[in-house]
Design goal:
About 40% of the residues lie in helices and about 25% in strands. The longest helix is centred in the last third of the chain and has 16 residues, at about 205-220. The protein starts with a strand and ends with a strand. It is α/β, with parallel strands linked by helices. The chain has a 6-stranded mixed beta sheet with strand order 10-9-8-13-11-12, sandwiched between helices. It is built from 11 helices and 13 strands.
Length: about 280
């Protein structure tokens, strides 16, 4: 029997491929250009992106074209889906939802395009929860209820070694970028209302990351949560942060350590880490 509700997301969700395959989540790739070479982001090695950024080679990103969504939607409809939930990176950071809506208008079954107002595993965990509900036979409304609860309760923090790359991409003001670089203040940022804002700061990476861990632990409290740490060219540091989170949070249902989307890395810069806490209802 086919699944009643199909789930589509994008490559910034950082969902491990084996989980996407098991739950039937279709993942549409954002695009990444390094110099004059453009490709789906999954085809571009993270090291190549980081090396290009350090060498001041232009690295740019783009939303998937509408046809990439159209063919995924068509496949879902052909497989017998009665509705599609298409859940994506915050519209405050990307035009991905815009492309998805253009494709949705051409499909013969209902397609609900959802601006998650999140990114990375902050997007990924709610998508996984929605896919699990869909796999259990929930209606479209039931799946959306599960998704909405997880999106509203998920906390997402971002540590960057430098604000330079976010400033280049227009994700943060020029004055803040100068302030961070000049005083060696390492920021911990938060995704709030779909855009990047300041959460706290620390002098040096260790203090900043301790503050990120403390903030995540406060969010978790004593309730069951999914936690995740994703990184861009910072695997050892990411593992240390995940270990610290495990020691501070009493009820961890699922813990994920992942390389972040190359597209996200292209904006956050080498050394960046994302920390996600997603309460489990």
């Amino acid at each position: 029997m086919s699944q009643r509700v199909a789930i589509v997301t994008d490559s910034t969700a950082s969902i491990p491929p084996e989980i996407a395959e098991r739950l039937g989540i279709a993942v549409v790739q954002l695009e990444l250009a390094v110099g004059d070479e453009q490709n789906d982001e999954r085809r571009v090695p993270h090291r190549d992106v980081a090396d290009a950024m350090r060498a001041d080679v232009p690295v740019t990103t783009a939303e998937p074209p509408a046809p990439a969504f159209f063919w995924n939607y068509q496949d879902a409809a052909a497989a017998g889906a009665e509705a599609i939930l298409s859940i994506h990176i915050s519209e405050g950071l990307s035009r991905t939802c815009e492309s998805a809506r253009a494709a949705a208008a051409e499909i013969g079954i209902p397609v609900y395009v959802v601006d998650s107002r999140l990114v990375g595993l902050g997007l990924g965990y709610p998508v996984i929860a929605a896919a699990e509900a869909a796999a259990g036979g929930a209606t479209a409304q039931g799946v959306m209820n599960v998704l909405d609860l997880r999106l509203r309760s998920t906390m997402q923090l971002l540590y960057v070694d430098t604000l330079e790359y976010l400033q280049r991409g227009g994700r943060i003001g020029r004055a803040r970028a100068w302030f961070g670089q000049t005083l060696s203040i390492k920021p911990v940022l938060a995704l709030e209302d779909g855009i990047i804002g300041q959460h706290t700061t620390g002098i040096g990476p260790e203090r900043a990351l301790k503050k990120a861990v403390a903030g995540a632990a406060r969010k978790a409290g004593g309730a069951p949560v999914d936690i995740g740490v994703e990184h861009f060219e910072a695997a050892e540091r990411a593992q240390q942060v995940l270990d610290e989170l495990r020691s501070r949070i009493p009820q961890v249902r699922r813990a994920t350590l992942a390389e972040t989307s190359a597209v996200l890395g292209a904006h956050a810069g080498p050394g960046a880490l994302g920390v996600t806490v997603s309460p489990v209802p």
